[in-house]
Specification:
homodimer, 404 residues, alpha/beta, Rossmann fold, 2 domains, four-stranded parallel sheet, 35% helix, ATP_PFK (chains A, B), Pyrophosphate--fructose 6-phosphate 1-phosphotransferase (chains A, B), kinase (chains A, B), cytoplasm (chains A, B)
């Protein structure tokens, strides 16, 4: 019986550790592998041989790991490139050193591409070595899944803060605009999800080239109509020429270091400069949305855990490699107004290097938000709250393995 | 039997509506007043005669009101000034029109000054009209209380996000600084509370004049020692000459409109410009901390509710005017390691126009955070979570009265 390795890559999420816990727990229920080793700091630490033995984590530790945000193994921004034989050979060397035949790689589209490349390469150069992908990303931009673990919890935090800050904004009478910025460089899923609370007046997504005049007209109309305007913008919103809003309008004035604002700040300033209102409030959720374990979605943390289990269980088949596990929505249940997840596996090549953008047909024209179909997509994902283990008023977390 | 009026003033909090619910519920338990009327948009709407009858809100509505953030009656930035006889006369006119003899005013130090001024003025000019204060503020800067409703919940959110973003930060290896900014213009209570999680490396408070060189030395030391540095800064942090950090270092370059950053952004840029690390991450909690009902502290929401009840109950004594209710910590219990609140009332003049700063003796030198005494002060306040009524994965809220 050989060992397996699990590593985490890319940006942390509120539930990426639940997938890790799922792999470890599945192996305790059915010890397909002798040891479950964690690679520290993603592929970077793994290549350096930095491993942590997770095999015998207690049930209590695994329960706490499920509610611990961020990547407990640590992550990295280092990407394994296709045809980087040196890195591939070094990885296999580390695997051989530790009697590892299988790598579970938890990450986004880049990581799924790495799984694909490694599996392809191994077929010829390292027979018996297997590479399996477990997706995660708050951006929700992976194909061909219904959604990606991490996104629902980020959406839940974003929705909670949208509603709370909208009520805060509504308490005032004076004319000011409110702009909330959320993560999402290439895809606007997270920004769009904020519409689930019914609080968003205008929505600016990366999927629609930004048109300043058209946008300002809509802002004016909202103020004329209701005396206020609550806007959500995705960090990746951009003009037709590709320039990000977050680059700032004064980016070319020679004082680039002074241009500090993000997309929300740019929009606020644009609205003030247009004389629509004299002031505004900007709120940037930034990392507070992606790692907020105190607002995990029960659907999300359960699915993330079960995806980890599913990947482990499927790997009992020795031919299972170059595959990624994922979630599809049970369409029959959805037709009846119920939500149900279906787990599946598909070749990593289907996941690799593609960006699933927020569907054009779900976007209302003129920054007016999203369609009912979009809301029906979002709503079940943010349902339910896990019963968190609390101490001193805060969710208990497990110390990160990379910091021990 | 006359009526009473309740109004909310200043910045919203996560539990200011719990105090409102407490007044309404107390009157249902013992109808000292015939009607409980809410003044919309603080004193501004009240002067305009915009009232909403709260007397018969259902038990269910009051339960939801307790978990609804922001000011359900609306708020305003309009301040009643001392010796503004026109406003005072108009207020008494509105009170007379609606047979109101008592005003409960929920607000911060300015509002408590208003209560004092109104009571003093009424003694001579409007006998029988009474003015009673119920404190709230996330800034926690009121004397002579132990703490102020709204602060504990804001501190709890700040602590939760501090810990979550610290874990997120810890997941990476590359050299970058992390700076979290929280509210607190004149007092650093909220920033200091973030230290309760044990995650803060350096703390920058308004109570200590900012010394750039000394600060950068500490940042360097942290990176030398541990390769990372997690900083919390209060929005009101300033240099010895009173200039706010949030004013930006380039504020005088003639391009003031391009200076968009807050205190955190300024610190990050300062550290990068000093060549300590090439980059950094900034997170500004801004309004997400003060109105986040999804993370109410049980201690806080209970005390806010009970302060509302206490104010109502004490007002059964016709001589009760010009007073503010507040909370003191039971020192005997504290000596035994337990937390217990004691409710008291004191003349509004004791609360008015003073700022209670974070105690100098609780601040460690060289931006190293706070003492154990400070942590012992914070910890009981963020304890416990109310059982929230949820729907669709979000806390249910009551539609604001000012928007109906």
């Amino acid at each position: 019986m050989g060992n397996c390795l699990v590593a985490q890559s890319g940006g942390p999420t509120a539930v990426i550790n639940a997938s890790l816990a799922g792999v470890v727990r599945a192996n305790q229920l059915n010890p397909v592998y002798d040891r479950v080793l964690g690679g520290l700091h993603g592929i970077e630490g793994t290549l350096a041989g930095k491993l942590f033995d997770l095999t015998d984590l207690s049930g209590r530790d695994l329960e706490i790991l499920r509610q611990t945000p961020s990547s407990a193994l640590g992550t990295c921004r280092y990407k394994l490139k296709r045809r980087n034989d040196a890195d591939f050979l070094r990885l296999v060397e580390v695997m051989d050193d530790h009697d590892i035949d299988t790598l579970f790689y938890i990450g986004g589209n880049d990581s799924m591409d790495t799984v694909d490349a490694l599996a392809e390469w191994a077929a010829e150069n390292a027979p018996g070595k297997r590479f399996i992908g477990i997706p995660k990303t708050v951006d929700n931009d992976l194909v061909p899944v219904d959604h990606c673990p991490g996104f629902p919890s980020a959406a839940k935090v974003a929705c909670q803060i949208t509603h709370a800050t909208r009520l805060d904004y509504d308490a005032y009478t004076r004319p000011e605009v409110f702009v909330l910025e959320v993560m999402g460089r290439d895809a606007g899923w997270l920004a769009a999800s904020c519409c689930a609370t019914g609080d968003v007046d205008l929505l600016v997504l990366p999927e629609v080239d930004f048109d300043k005049d058209a946008f300002l007209n809509e802002v004016r109309a909202k103020f004329d109509e209701q005396g206020e305007c609550y806007i959500v913008v995705s960090e990746g919103a951009h003009y037709a020429d590709g320039t990000y809003l977050s680059a700032g309008e004064s980016a070319n004035d020679g004082f680039a270091h002074a241009v500090l604002g993000g997309a929300a700040q740019t929009l606020k300033q644009m609205i003030v400069d247009a004389g629509i209102v004299p002031r505004g409030v900007v709120q940037d959720l930034s990392r507070a949305a992606r790692s907020s374990n105190f607002a995990q979605s029960l659907v999300d943390v359960t699915e993330a855990y079960e995806l980890g289990m599913s990947a482990h269980m499927r790997s009992a088949d020795p031919a299972f490699t170059g595959q990624v596990v994922g979630i599809r929505r049970d369409e029959a249940a959805a037709a009846e107004g119920r939500y149900n997840a279906r787990f599946f596996a598909a070749p990593a090549s289907e996941f690799a290097n593609q960006v699933r953008r927020f569907p054009a047909e779900w976007i209302l024209p003129n920054y007016q938000g999203v369609t009912e179909e979009a809301l029906a997509y979002f709503r079940p994902l943010i349902e339910g709250e896990p019963k968190l283990v609390m101490e001193g008023g805060l969710p208990v977390t497990l110390p990160a393995f990379n910091r021990r």
